[in-house]
Give the backbone structure.
Amino acid sequence: MAKVEVTAQKQARGLGARYVYDTLKKEILTLTLEPGTPLDETSLSQRFAMSRSPVREALVRLSADGLVEMLSNRSTLVAPINLAEFPRYVEALDFLQRINTRLAARNATSKDITQMRALAKTFDDACRANDYLVMSATNRDFHMSIANAGRNFYLARSYGQLLDEGRRILHMHFDYIRRSDTDALLNPEHYEMVDAIEKRDVALADRLAHEHTRQFHNRFMEFLGARYDDEFQFELATSFSGSSK
């Protein structure tokens, strides 16, 4: 009987840790929890109405995902977004996106192609629903279906890590496009990449993958340089009087 109770407690703690992990991950990826926000175990325990153990377990998992930083003084922060390294990030993303797409054009099966098209549609559905979290997740799933079709585990794994690291940037990217008068989230790029892979046109698949990365880079740079709102009007006083009446 005691053994059953211990097992039930472990399962409950595991479910608690999973719930905390999923909730905080969603809030971090959607920027509800901004970069640099402190995550105090005691406060989180009170918020989720559970002990500190599952909270700590969730934070360790988030740290492994690169979404939080656990500092030497035992404090935890939402991981910063290092925009200074964005050009290096895009370089790495471009290389891995192109090589994985090239390999997919050589090695993809008909089953792989069917999965790619299904995931491209799932991404489109998320765009229509305007759900940024699902959009970033399904975008990752689509590109990882290409990487997995390339049959190189090491390149696919590295690519997946980059996609995960960039999901908060992608969230800002989606938000900017959604507000844009000239760009649209729904476009044929994913389907064009799948068509090139299905035709085993390695050169075309490579070019489309590169253009996809370049478009992401250019749009995000436009987001960073977006014009601030300076249309407000106010009047300046023409004279001052330092004396009181």
